[in-house]
Amino acid sequence: MFLNKLKSDLMTRTNQKLINSFFKMIKHSSFVKVKLNKSQTQLIYDIVKKSKMSFIINDELVFGKGITFFEAFSNLSNIPFYVNVQDKMLSGWGNSSDYQSYIYIPRLFKSSFLEDISHRLVITPDQTIPIYLMCPWDSNHIGSIDVDNEDTYLCDDKYDSIEIDVRRVINGDKEKFGIILYGPPGNGKSHYVRYLAKKYRLPIYIFLLKKDSTNIDIIGMFGRVKGPCIILMEDFDSYFNKREPVMEDCDFSFDGILNVLDGSYASPKKAIYILTANNIDLVDGALKDRPSRFKHIVCVDYPNLEIRTKIFSSSHLSKTMIKKLVKDTEGRSLDQVLHVADAAKKGDTITIPDAPLEYRGLFVQKEKKKNENENELIKDAISS
Q: What's the whole-model pTM score?
């Protein structure tokens, strides 16, 4: 009944073709009406505004500044929804009775949709992602990372399939899955973990073993993890060479890891396992050759020409300088390339161990022409 009335109303004041397409998609679905609170409304508003799949019908929403009206179609994690905020907001966001905000979602996906919304709201007021250290009897909060826009500097389509699985885990369509990131140090393995955590608002649980850690301790560590989350098993090749522990006379075993991964004792739900290693040959086949444990195996290698060009092009340098820096940083790690780009941008002396002789001490100096109307010059000089 609601959908018919809504469709009739919208057809009189907006793009009929778009509305017909939307209702054709949802006509066989049963939608439910859910009232949103202040935090949920603001979150949905942000999602609609940022999504390329949104169709905004009316947008007169100004948070905290009186009468408001907002109406749009969009989707969250592939679940379509319609949101309507009515104009009872007379004095800002101070009182829940000042406005009416409703969202209409498919009944079938109501639980997963609201759970996704709740999870996205479990962020501290300063918008940070918590980081925990997994301990046998508790999880210690050891820090946090700010939520901001972080570039991954990745160009391969295989990362797209990873994000599809991440969304499936968050939505409850998949219980867990694993990723192995391997390659030389300093090329973005940890960087990519932070990217996923920030984009999907996922807490990070760091798995750390000590010499006296036992298999019982490992069970306790995993048993206290709360999903959705990322479980980071960093530098795994520093713990095991194939199935053999690297630490001498340690109290844990490789089988203890397999037991928690397979859920034999304690396996968190809605968990994304990320294992990193410098040398993939040291990772046993029971992990890298078992998609049920680790589905995605990704080599994170030295940044290629495309990535290096992208990095230096964002530094506002001259084309000549960009071309030189891209050429001279071939075979360098991502950390080194970012260091060079940052130094060049600031006009600092660039020093990289083992760099070519003609590259050491490269100095980028910014000078302004006397004429204020002319652009800033960027020139390079090789220090003697």
A: 0.61
